[in-house]
Structure prediction request, 378 residues.
Amino acid sequence: MTSNAARDADVVVVGAGAVGLAIAAQLARTHSVVVLERHESYARETTSHNSGVIHAGIYYRTGSLKHRLCIEGNPMLYEWCEAHGVGHRRVGKLIVALDGDESGALDAVLAQAQANEVVGIHPITLEAARDLEPHVPATAALYSPNTGIVDQVGYARSLESAAREAGALFAYHHEVTGVARDLDGFVIEARDADGHATTLRTSALVNSAGHGAPAIATALGYPLDGGEGVPMLRQHVNRGAYFDVVGARFARAVSHLVYPLPRPQLEGLGVHLTLDLDGALRLGPDTAWWGDDAALDYRSDATRQAEFLAAGRRLLPELEAEDLAPGQVGYRPKLSGPGEPEADFLLWHDRGYVHLGGIESPGLTASLPLARQVAALL
Ligand SMILES: Cc1cc2nc3c(=O)[nH]c(=O)nc-3n(C[C@H](O)[C@H](O)[C@H](O)COP(=O)(O)OP(=O)(O)OC[C@H]3O[C@@H](n4cnc5c(N)ncnc54)[C@H](O)[C@@H]3O)c2cc1C
Prediction:
């Protein structure tokens, strides 16, 4: 990457989610960086609509980016949170078999976790599982001590501060509407909240726009379905809804993350129990395909309450309909479509352009090592 005085920045980063912010914080140490974000502030899309789990790297295909960056990102995220005063807790996670038939599947998860060199995961006895979570009818369980939770928005705030301190400039309310290559870099068109157009010139462009990433690649002339050295860039959208467990009898009833065994016929990890830093309990996320080009609708609704109650009762048999209230909704940007095998993260570099595609879970956990990889590419 060359620095050029006629340019507004060495690097323009599109998107102020956890990934774009981590990249900006990393690159601003050595380059002039401008971050363009269409919303009024950081973390308004996927980064603030997720489970906030610091994953340990259990399920991913061994050797994939999801696996390697999650394993690397887990201790890095804990260290970052400690150094920057970001709320987090190493609460630990239980993966539970709920009847005798599931114990073989639990062994398969353990084998995958061991192949992935997940630190500390181990089987525990039925008695130990019941001690840890008396309300959950586990028949066998795995315990992952290094899975935890983080205040996602606090984490994003800390990354934004670190990027600003290193000299990055932030242009909120600036939506990238067009991009073209010029002789030795890129010309970017952005529109502000009043509809005014701005043009920026940069040597390098990092597309960490989450759900907006394919549109920017299209503007640059890349075919979304790939070809001639271009990977598949098209993303599909998968909605994940949650229900809050509001019943007073469940206040502080669960103190670990509790996951059923993943069911291959379902995308995602199956509806599970997560906690936030206040100890509030919620069920989710579920999975449902959403129109690729449909506007994202973050409003919650009760349409799937019966399914959540059924899934929730497997983990907490005493749960009643009135214990549940519709919670947040998030949208996964996925490179794999319905029925297709799970795709890996895409990190693709072409002559100063870096494309981050399909940054679904564990993207929050992996954000710091992803940023390092982007810096290495440039
Ligand atoms: C339901 C759900 C649960 C999850 N749970 C976890 C979890 O527990 N742990 C974990 O590690 N990960 C989890 N994830 C994944 C994690 O949330 C994401 O990987 C991560 O937040 C992605 O961050 P990002 O910066 O890539 O995307 P985003 O946060 O979506 O940021 C992209 C930004 O780009 C901006 N943008 C888009 N287009 C443009 C444009 N044209 N011009 C300007 N700005 C633009 C958007 O406004 C947005 O702010 C979950 C995801 C979902 C959906």
Observations:
- The first strand starts at residue 9 and ends at 14.
- The domain at 90-147+235-334 is CATH 3.30.9.10 (D-Amino Acid Oxidase; Chain A, domain 2).
- The pocket of flavin-adenine dinucleotide is lined by residues 14-20, 36-39, 44-47, 50-53, 55, 175-176, 208-212, 216, 240, 285, 330-332, 359-365 (CB under 6 Å).
- Residues 93 and 217 are 38 Å apart (CA to CA).
